[in-house]
Automatic annotation (TrEMBL):
Its EC number is 2.7.1.170. Catalyzes the specific phosphorylation of 1,6-anhydro-N-acetylmuramic acid (anhMurNAc) with the simultaneous cleavage of the 1,6-anhydro ring, generating MurNAc-6-P. Is required for the utilization of anhMurNAc either imported from the medium or derived from its own cell wall murein, and thus plays a role in cell wall recycling. It is an enzyme of class 2 (transferase). This is Anhydro-N-acetylmuramic acid kinase. The gene is anmK. InterPro entries: Anhydro_N_Ac-Mur_kinase, ATPase_NBD. Pathway: Amino-sugar metabolism; 1,6-anhydro-N-acetylmuramate degradation; Cell wall biogenesis; peptidoglycan recycling. GO terms for biological process: 1,6-anhydro-N-acetyl-beta-muramic acid catabolic process; amino sugar metabolic process; peptidoglycan turnover.
Amino acid sequence: MKFIGLMSGTSVDGIDAALVEVTGKEYNVQIELLATHTGNYPAGLRNRILSVCHGAPLTMADIVELDDEIAISFADVANHLGQADVVASHGQTVYHRPPTNNNLGYSWQLGRGALIAHLTQTPTISDFRAADIAAGGQGAPLVPPVDASLLSDPQRHRCIQNIGGIGNLTYLPPWDRADSPPESIIGWDTGPGNALIDWAVHAFSNGTLTYDHDGNWAAQGNPCQTLIDQWLEQSFFKQPPPKSTGRELFGASYGQRCWQEAQAFDLDQADFLATLTAFTAATIVDSYRQLPRLPDEVLLCGGGSQNGYLRSQLQSRLPDIPILTTDDVGLDSRFKEAIAFAILGYWRWHQHPGNLLTVTGASHPCLLGHIHKVKDHLATEISK
């Protein structure tokens, strides 16, 4: 079957789409990547999404309008790729609350699937996180079972490190994919990925830049290790997995506090960007101390995998471990998340649970996502 996976992450830097031919059963799936496309949000829409992520208050009418505009943007990107059997849309996260001892978690993605189904005239699966959260899970990260299916190696211990707005890892012990995946597959959010770096670049450039291309700006500065050590004392990094996070913690307010603290060290803008980038690397490597063992190799994906300075900071902290990208093993690093949601959609369509309990902490396996079918030119939610 042909699935279109749609993904816009916490960086809000565009909507990635992948048209994927998926075959196989359960975890033994094979893919052929047929086409890819990235669509940019209109500048005004992106700014409104970021404002909501940073806590700006909205009326219900504002929320409805934003929900529709995001869905229309997602549908436009899907239509650019041509016809598929099913669209699997992650939507745009605007709020994520991890579970606590007193409350279930909550994760809110805008871009309603019923409207995407209507605009694409294609059955659409959306709202992938809700079922895992209802079962007591974090609702994140959801990609590790896909990583296991596509990127496990029979001999090597691997870490798949996604660096989007937020970073997350998947630890893959050796697996030949002949049997069910080993229970020792684990994963969690490592902390900030590009979120703080992007915030600082946008602020320092007065809105003319949205990210640090290849880390060139940061490479002009010198990281302050004292500040990095201080920031690593934040309680999230001490929390054992399963765990997840978002801009609610590592957003603009957090970045502003970091900038204020940097004043005591007389850091200029380049020094501060170098420190934020090195801090991101340090949070990733610090997370690896909680693994059963260090990996034989690390495969990067997401926007941060294209940041040369960030990669160099990771390599300096893991000098004996090859730092590669998923491109090096045949999986497009830029579109891996969109590919992953195409597969999660394939599993949902075929009644296969999509969550890993060792990753999210949910109490039981769940079918992830709501299916919206197109009938008589109307999109209606159904149970399949």
